[in-house]
Design brief:
489 residues, two-stranded antiparallel sheet, 22 helices
């Protein structure tokens, strides 16, 4: 049977809540499959290089997870206008990512063959997920699902020509890429051996470092072993990936256990709600915060008990950040903390353009900016980077080290940073009234979970907005609105 068409929402329900892909969103097995697919993507030299240079997945994994989940939801929305808008946004984002890897090989995030590989890993991992969980797909279902994944690529790329039309040809294509193109890239190693072992706590668990570290010490190696065991054998062999004894059985058991979720009442598991709850911070006026606060209190008691019973050392010993001072809502960060938590978005130990581009990308995503506003924001951040480079890059290596930053902190608050704040204000002030009202404020800070304005007139003028932004970006103060945007994991 051929799958020569790309499929449309009318011919074939590739999109919307009834599509096969959408059904995976709240399936626990999909978490394992996505990790597997991400490793296969990162093992591609072009994708791996782009991730290492531009991605925030090591320092802000929960934020990246939320953004990726919401983006995928929009790409499979039943409304074609929503899909087209998201595809355009992703294409603008990817068009800004190009460069060369450590071996001098060029990469371009808009390369069509590379983008096709991303979709191929998602489809193949979905098929593998079903097989490993004891629910293998029949040939007809696979054929129909493949049409829908090609429709996904067509929605993103204009057509699906980079993926074979016939499913049988797809499997030959997939095996060829695995055998001949995938490598043991730095990005793949980071996901398998660093991310799991050093995963920062989400906002909900940030105040319980001991409990989080203990759980991570157990779950991290298990997730790594499960993922490695699920990868195609030719890639494991070629990349020299070690396999833990018993890992195949562990992997099979994990997929089978996750597959049991099909017996749970429909709607019981909602991934979007889980991600949002994990991101809740104390003091939020979101209705779910009260439940989260009670849960945090119980977890803190468990964390204290665990600390008494099992003193931690080495990698398990947490180094909690100082909590905000009571009543003030703010606390000072050290220069080292601010550099690590806010400026070094990519986690490579230096401040460079990709870090500021990541800030612009995050703010553009949160505000759902159209192209002109998005370009203005990127241009403002680019001007700030040129200003910072001129003031702080004393050794001329094209990036700013933590020491260079600490030696010249006042240079952060120059005219270009003020311009960033002004552009951000204009983008938030949707009605051009010269002030941000409560609804506009909530739109900007929706990751802070709809905190109410505390000023008496119910609006937020430009001077106050710019002052608060500069205080956060140059004064190294914690901020209830800005930390979830730029500092939280």
């Amino acid at each position: 049977m051929t799958t020569g068409t790309t499929g449309t929402a009318d011919e074939d329900p590739a999109f919307g809540p009834e599509s096969r892909f959408s059904a995976f969103f709240d399936d626990p097995r999909w978490a394992l499959a996505v990790i597997r697919a991400t490793v296969l993507e990162a093992a591609h030299p072009q994708i791996g290089a782009a991730l290492v240079d531009n991605s925030t997945f090591t320092t802000h994994p929960w934020r990246r997870l939320r953004n990726t989940f919401l983006s995928t939801r929009r790409m499979f929305d039943a409304d074609p206008a929503v899909r087209e808008r998201e595809a355009a946004r992703l294409n603008r984002l990817h068009s800004r990512m190009s460069g060369a890897d450590s071996r001098g090989r060029a990469y371009d995030a808009m390369d069509r063959a590379t983008r096709a590989w991303v979709v191929a890993t998602l489809f193949e991992s979905a098929v593998t997920m079903c097989r490993l969980s004891g629910q293998p797909l029949d040939q007809d279902t696979m054929e129909r699902m493949y049409v829908r994944y090609r429709a996904f690529l067509a929605a993103l790329d204009g057509d699906a020509g980079e993926l074979p039309e016939d499913l049988g040809d797809f499997w030959r294509y997939f095996d060829m890429v695995v055998e001949n193109e995938l490598e043991n890239t730095e990005a793949a190693r980071v996901i398998l051996y660093r991310l799991f072992d050093h995963l920062p706590a989400p906002a909900l668990l940030k105040g319980m470092p001991t409990l989080w570290a203990a759980g991570r010490a157990v779950a991290g190696p298990l997730l790594g072993a499960i993922t490695v065991a699920s990868l195609p054998e030719p890639y494991r062999r070629r990349a020299g990936l070690p396999e833990m004894p018993g890992a195949p059985a562990l992997m099979q058991g994990a997929y089978l256990a996750a597959g049991l979720a099909r017996f749970l009442p429909e709607g019981l598991i909602n991934v979007e709600s889980i991600i949002e709850v994990l991101s809740l911070s104390p003091g939020s006026d979101d209705p779910r915060a009260r439940t989260a606060t009670a849960l945090r209190a119980r977890m803190k008691r468990a964390s204290a008990l665990l600390r008494l019973l099992t003193p931690l050392s080495g990698d398990l010993a947490p180094t909690p950040d100082p909590a905000p001072s009571p009543g003030a809502g703010q606390s000072r960060r050290s220069a080292e903390q601010f550099f690590r938590q806010v400026l070094d978005q990519t986690g490579d130990g230096h401040l460079a353009w990709p870090d500021l581009a990541a800030m612009a990308r995050e703010l553009s995503t949160r505000l759902d900016l159209d192209e002109p506003e998005e370009t203005r924001l990127y241009d403002a951040f680019a001007a700030w980077w040129r200003e910072l480079q001129a003031a702080l890059d004393t050794d001329g290596d094209g990036r700013v080290s933590a020491d260079e930053y600490a030696a010249a902190v006042p240079s952060l608050a120059g005219p270009a940073l003020i311009r960033v704040a002004e552009v951000l204000f204009d983008a938030t002030d949707k009605d051009s009234s010269g002030a941000i009202d409560a609804d506009e404020y909530r739109t900007l800070f929706r990751t802070a979970f709809h905190r109410d304005l505390t000023i008496t007139d119910g609006s937020y003028g430009q001077s106050a907005f710019v002052g608060d932004f500069l205080s956060f970006m140059s004064g190294r103060r914690t901020s209830t609105p800005y930390d979830p945007l730029l500092a939280d994991a």
